[in-house]
Amino acid sequence: MSETIKNWVNICVKKDNKILLLNRQHDDFKGWIQPGGKVEFPESFFEAAVRELKEETGLTALNLELKGISGFTNPLKKERYVYYDFLCQSFEGDLLKTSREGEPRWFSLEEIEHLEMQDDIRERLPLYYRKGSFERIHYWDDQLKKVVKTVTKCYD
Fold it and tell me: Where does the Nudix hydrolase domain start and stop, copy by copy (predicted)?
């Protein structure tokens, strides 16, 4: 049986000491999230990141740095959800007042600690700021219906 891979992108938009997040309130993943979404075949991962950033924030990325790979692996079903994690520190355009994913807002790095967000996002955000790249994989147990192990590796 071959594996199934589903591809997504996350974009950490950083300006000075602030991060752009969206207040997502429309499904099971509520809370503050970074821009991102599904890669639409046959676009490249960089093209998907540029498109998602524009759709969700109104901003056009002028540079993107691939910082890491994260996601979920379901060994029983041989499924992977792969997230290509990009850092964007140069962009142009006007920030939308609202988007389909929620209100975009800038936060200082200190403010992020107090925001309502998924633990995975809170733990992954600092990986974008460090030198080098990272890999963060969650292993899903289909019988228990939960993540049973998370492995994070940093590469300098």
Answer: 4-129
Residue 38 tokens, joined: 């599904």
8-35 pLDDT, tens digit per residue, is 999 999 999 999 999 987 666 678 999 9
**Cα separation of 127 and 86, whole Å?**
11
Active site residue 47: no
**132-142 residue pLDDT tens:** 999 999 999 98
Which run of H or E residues covers position 129?
A: helix 119-129
Write the CB contacts of 55 (distance below 8 Å, at least 6 apart in sequence). 37, 99, 100
Instruction: Report how far residue 46's alpha carbon sits from residue 57's, in angstroms, rounded to the nearest whole number.
Output: 16
Marked catalytic residue, from 43, 55, 79, 103 = 103
